[in-house]
Amino acid sequence: MWRSLTSIIRPCVESSAAPEQQRDILKSVSKTFYIETFGCQMNAHDSEKVIGTLEHEGYLRVEDEAEAGLILYNTCSIRDKAEQKVFHRLNEYKRMQGEGKKFAVIGCVAQQEGTRIFDKAPYVSLVSGSASYRNLPQMLARLEAGENRITGLDDRQTDETFETEFVARTNPHRGYITIIEGCDKFCAYCVVPYTRGKERSRAANSVIDEAIRIADQGFTEIQLLGQNVNSYNDPSAKMTFAELLAAVGSVPGIKRVRFTTSHPRDFTKDIVDAIDAVPTLCDHVHLPVQSGSTAVLKAMNREYTRDWYLERISWIKAAKRDISMTSDIIVGFPGETEQDLEDTATLLEEVGYDQVFAFKYSPRPNTPAVTLADSIPDEVKVARLQVILERQRAIQKASYQRHLGEVMEVMVEGHNHQRGQVTGRSSQNKTVNFTVTDPILPATGSYRTVKITQTFPNSLVGEAVRVN
Ligand code: SF4
């Protein structure tokens, strides 16, 4: 929970507390922190756990960096020139170093740059990658003792995961649970195995216990997270990923379970069977293909071919439920030809994705692909990206039309007062904007049955209907 420090101190200090009590109050709230987070959902959820840990250690989160004693920067290395952006931001922190504040850089760029961060930004006291977050309480204690140059960088080969019951959940309706950390896939373009370390799974019982706690707190939707959830390997050897999905989906009070991200190499048919069998599992699979060309997939070290991928898609299409499929695409990977691009475009059409996140390739430090000549000029990459986006838009325009007249359950996420619409999300993760006849708008987090009256390439429009 974010609170302004002044709003907390003032009532305390103005109270009739004795001076020594007032001093204690001020002393305790002097352990304040501000956190800035970049990156993927894994990073955002890591921050929720870091915040929970700090709060458990007696820190108070503030929303203004000027009020913080400790400033944490949770970094992401996926963006182009990520490290330059981090050092630029750290440079902005520099002006605050005379105010007695402490600075911590955590996350993927922290792991990637390591102690170079101390050299370039000597006012930073703590640098930690995500594999060391479980040691955060000890690192904080050393920080409070006045130590500088504290590192958490040597845990990438650990078998342990960052488990904590202290999670400051920022989404009021969707609870995130990490089931697997790290990655062993080593795709040629990706820095994650080097920053987040080797794959390690949480015990199924621990995941289910967290799901029960979340449900008890009133959450109705759970998203299971991991860089590659499909290679989940229960250390207690009790459950496969599909069985874990079904178990989480059976927790009383849970209405929706999502999971991300899947790797085609490890995607098994029993996941589709579980979605068919357990209604609370959302009918949506995000299965990043990256390219439709087997040659490019090989160069990317994705460990599957176009045909292998399409076989998994055929399982999903053969399901009893209409399972929505989405994907990630990289265009302009070194060596990609016009024919490779066409293979990607035809794959989009063959699959019929409901959404695609397409990016231009750019090299990342410390990845195998960085040694390949980045041979495709940027203007060609831009043009290729445009081809993919346009082809995909046409696919979505047609595919969203299948929902016209359909009645579906929508979770309310907000209200668009200007348009007089309620906004929400379907089980397939599609945005649905709808009208209600009730004068009282439905609360966020509640569910409504909606009849679809109009379709667009990226959203659906409808009206709430009563169910008898
Ligand atoms: S599966 Fe590949 S792209 Fe995904 S995190 Fe692992 S190495 Fe990166």
Question: In short, what is this structure?
Answer:
The chain has helices at residues 5-13, 19-29, 41-56, 82-94, 108-113, 116-120, 136-144, 192-195, 204-216, 241-249, 269-277, 294-299, 306-317, 338-351, 378-400; strands at residues 32-37, 60-61, 70-75, 102-107, 124-128, 150-152, 174-178, 180-181, 200-201, 221-225, 256-260, 284-286, 324-331, 355-360, 407-416, 421-426, 431-435, 447-455, 459-464. It has 468 residues and is of the alpha/beta class.
What does this structure look like?
The protein is globular and about 65 Å long. The protein is built from 15 helices and 19 strands. Helix 1 runs antiparallel to helix 2. The protein has helices spanning about 5-15, 20-30, 40-55, 80-95, 110-115, 115-120, 135-145, 190-195, 205-215, 240-250, 270-275, 295-300, 305-315, 340-350, 380-400, and strands at about 30-35, 60, 70-75, 100-105, 125-130, 150, 175-180, 180, 200, 220-225, 255-260, 285, 325-330, 355-360, 405-415, 420-425, 430-435, 445-455, 460-465. A six-stranded parallel sheet has the order 2-1-3-4-5-6, sandwiched between helices. Strands 15-16-17-19-18 form a five-stranded mixed β-barrel. The protein has a three-stranded parallel sheet with strand order 7-10-11, with helices on both faces. With about 475 residues, it is α/β, with parallel strands linked by helices. Bound molecules: iron/sulfur cluster (SF4). Iron/sulfur cluster (SF4) binds near residues 186 and 190. Catalyzes the methylthiolation of N6-(dimethylallyl)adenosine (i(6)A), leading to the formation of 2-methylthio-N6-(dimethylallyl)adenosine (ms(2)i(6)A) at position 37 in tRNAs that read codons beginning with uridine. It holds the Pfam family Radical_SAM.
